[in-house]
Structures are given as C-alpha cells and as structure tokens.
Amino acid sequence: MNISIVIPNYNGAKLLEKNLPKVLKAVNFYKRGKAEIIIVDDCSTDNSLDVLKNKNLIILKNEKNLGFSSTVNRGVGKATGDVVILLNTDVYPQENFLEPLLKHFGDENVFAVGCLDKSIEGEKIVERGRGLGEWRRGFLIHRRGEVDKTNTLWVSCGSGAFRKSIWDKLGGLNELYNPFYWEDIDLSYRALKSGYKIFFEPKSIVFHEHEKGSIKEKYTASQIKKIAYRNQFIFVKENATDINLKLTYFTWLPYHFLKALLRRDWPFFTGYFNALVLMPKVIKSSLIYQKAFIKKDSEIIKNYLE
C-alpha cells in the first residue's frame, strides 16, 4: 500500500527541525509500499523553507496565508498514495506507528483511522484521539473519549490516516472552516452519514506538543473563540438533517443568546453573525454534501455517546 504523509506548516521551523527527522525515521521503517512526504507551507514568515532544504520532500508553498483546510486540501490533492497520513508540525510519531494504522484499510469501506495522541499538556500527558459527542440543545457537543475502544466520532486531521479515493468523493475539508477548528469533525461526520467507517487505533502512537502550535501564537483567545463559535454554527447547517434537530436548534437559539448575553460572551455573537455572512456559501456546500448522506443523525450519534 502506497502512502503519502502530508504536513501543513505555518511558522513551524523549530518544530520541523525537531519532529521531521522522526517522521522520516517512521517512513524508513515502513516496508509495505512506496512513501512520500509532502510539506505545504502556508506562507510562513519564519525560516521554515530553509529548514526543509536538502531533504527528499515534496514542498508546496501558498502565496498567501489560506488556513488549515485549504493548506491540507492542497497537499492531499498532490498526494499519490492510496492512504494519506496527516500530521501537524507539533506532532511526532513512534517509528512503528504506520503498521497498526494501515491494517484497517483492508476493508474498502474504511475512510479514516485515528492515532493515539499522547498530548503533552504542561507537566502531564493526556491520551487523546478518540472522540465522542451528542446533539444537545441544537448543537453537537463533542468531547474526549477514553482510549479503551476503537469507535470514534471523528479522526483528527492532525494525526490520522485517510483513504484518498474516499477523501476525493467527499470533497475533502470544507474550506469555509478556515483558518481552523471543526473541519475534521465535519469531514468525519459527513463520511459517517455517507455510509463509510472510521476507527481509532490505540496501537498507533504519536506525541503532540499541543501548546507549541502556531494557533496560540498568531491568535488571541477571543479570536479563537469567535472562530470556534462561527464554525459550530456552520457545522449545524452543513450536517443536521433530521427534522427534530433542525427544530431543536431554532427552539433553543434564543436561550443560547440569552445565556451568552448574561455571561458577556461577546465572541458568541460575533461568531453567529460571521456565520450568517457565510450562509449563502454554507447552504450551497451543504446541498452538495447532503446528496451523499444515507444515514440519519440519530443513527450516527447513538454509537458515540460513551
């Protein structure tokens, strides 16, 4: 099985210097097919491109900063492998992480498989990679799941493997979610509603230096909240097709507004109105995506409650 490892980068020179050798080591450890590494630079202002010189890599450079979804889509579009492994610059794998990840793709209906993400958070390591969720008061509320099962509601695009042919059928990441957040949950949810399978693989281990990523360096906490809220609204419009979910969303919306007002959560309002601005594009993409849906929201979510 041929593979492509795609790494989106923005001002990650120091992380690339530290983590890319470990990715190269894992690729050398893989003997079951050809492997390529594609780095997509999202118009970095540091010396990232200098770090990447003299290495056997495919390097793409965005002429302007586009955001995570657009950058990943460009890399996957260039990929020639049957399976694409997405790794963020702040992630480094164990050398043998590929074998347990790829074994799932013997089933042609498997779209994606996620890694066990050992997230370095302060002085402790939190094991992540398996996601759970439920529809509550009109929104999908997602959370970390324990890593003792293989079902997952989504596969992270920071440390996961994706079948290229199905990725193309699904249309890849929705670039309306740029610059970040909710894009991988959206893609996984669309895959599930389209009848494909996704899994979590606890034997495929990566380490994630979460606090060293570029998001917190470029954006304030308030800006991050605005983007997260905006994309949460977009997700509902893109994916919620059950009539009761649509009614629940509109019924509870005044409650959410009042609650945000009382706690002076101004980013909530900004996120909502920013989503409204994008709504013509959201509706257009949702009509395309929903043509492929063969399962109801209630069928999907019941499998990821615990």
Structure description:
The protein is α/β, with parallel strands linked by helices. It has a single domain, classed as Spore Coat Polysaccharide Biosynthesis Protein SpsA, Chain A. Helix content is 42%, strand content 24%. The strands form two sheets. Strands 1, 2, 3, 4, 5, 6, 7, 10 and 11 form a nine-stranded mixed sheet that branches. A hairpin with a 2-residue loop joins strand 8 and strand 9. Helix 6 packs parallel to helix 8 and helix 8 runs parallel beside helix 10. It is globular. The mean pLDDT is 96.
SS summary, helix count: 11
Task: Evaluate the radius of gyration.
Answer: 19 Å
End-to-end distance: 33 Å
Quickly name the level 1 CATH class. Answer: Alpha Beta
Order of helices and strands: EHEHEHEEHEEEEEHHEHHHHH
Structural class: alpha/beta
Measured by DSSP, the beta-strand proportion falls in 15-25%
Provide the CATH superfamily. Answer: Spore Coat Polysaccharide Biosynthesis Protein SpsA, Chain A
| Low-confidence residue ranges | none
Kindly report the average pLDDT value. 96
